[in-house]
Write a structure and sequence with these properties.
GO terms for molecular function: isomerase activity. With about 290 residues, the chain is an alpha/beta fold. It has ten helices and ten strands.
Length: about 290
């Protein structure tokens, strides 16, 4: 078992499952600068850890995440004297780079090789919607709600919600949420397909999330990686392109060993046992 504490997260790895927990309940788990930096480094660590086969992302306190800490958008321009401030084009380009960086952190939830299950209680607001829509599976407790908060503070969401949410729920409903900033509660979220299941309590939800994670972790990690890669690619491409990618993936990474083990275990009425993936070191890490 591995346990690590960060400023904004706790990371616990056991039995091939990584539990990534937002751990600033007193601050409503808002997305501060530390949050973004830590999220990026933790996801990179998870992706390189061959022992991890699935992630459960959960939270602490009343709300899952109250969204962006607006201080994270600060780029120092406001501290420059008026007579020395850059022109609007240069300020705009700086903000563009900030948005691209934040988009990259969220997109890493899709890019890592293992599925991510989001377990949501209370409010999932603003940037938190960007985050959970990049996860593979979403579960929620019955009091949970989702809100595209950006319109309520005079801006358009820009870190992934507008791109991913219309591919999860009906476009008309998504646009209504984006234009009004209204809350979508868990029952409506389940009906719309935003979440897979709804639970009476947070405790029951976490139990359900970890039960689901355990089932996923019991499967071939190569096959799970292939499923995630192909489904993500197919979502954003034509059927023809998706089929081509699927065929190339199968030709390159179909594991005869895992197939034999899965079939044999089924015939022998036992749990299958699959090898972990191979650890990959950073180029700047020592090979010793």
């Amino acid at each position: 078992m591995t346990n690590k504490k960060f400023k904004c997260f706790d990371l616990n790895v056991s039995d091939n499952i990584a539990n990534l927990v937002l751990s600033r309940p007193n601050e409503l788990n808002t997305m501060s600068r530390d949050f973004w930096v830590e999220l990026g480094s933790i996801l990179e660590e998870i992706n390189r850890n061959s022992d991890i086969r699935v992630v459960v992302m959960s939270s602490t306190g009343k709300h899952f995440c109250a969204g962006m800490d607006l201080g994270a958008f600060s780029n120092g321009v406001e501290d420059i004297p008026d007579d020395k401030k850059p022109d609007s084009a240069r300020i705009g380009e700086a903000l563009y780079r900030v948005a691209k960086e934040l988009q990259g952190y969220i997109s890493n939830l899709e890019k890592i090789r293992v599925p991510v299950i989001a377990a949501i209680q209370g409010g999932c607001i603003g940037g938190a919607v960007d985050m959970v829509t990049a996860c593979d599976i979403r579960l929620a407790s019955k009091e949970a709600f989702f809100c595209i908060q950006e319109i309520n503070i005079g801006m358009a969401a820009d870190v992934g919600t507008l791109q991913r949410l219309p591919k999860i729920i009906p476009d008309s409903k998504m646009r209504e949420m984006a234009y009004t900033g209204r809350r979508m509660y868990a029952d409506e979220a389940k009906e719309s397909g935003l979440i897979s299941d709804m639970y009476e309590t947070q405790e029951e939800m976490l139990e359900g999330a970890n039960k689901l994670a355990k089932e996923i972790a019991s499967k071939s990690p190569v096959a799970i990686y292939g499923l995630k890669a192909v489904m993500n690619y197919s979502r954003d491409h034509s059927v023809s392109d998706g089929l081509e990618y699927n065929a190339l993936w199968s030709g390159a990474m179909l594991s005869q060993k895992d197939m034999t083990e899965a079939i044999t275990a089924n015939m022998e009425k036992r749990d299958a046992s699959f090898d972990d993936m191979v650890d990959v070191k950073k180029f700047n890490e020592s090979g010793s």
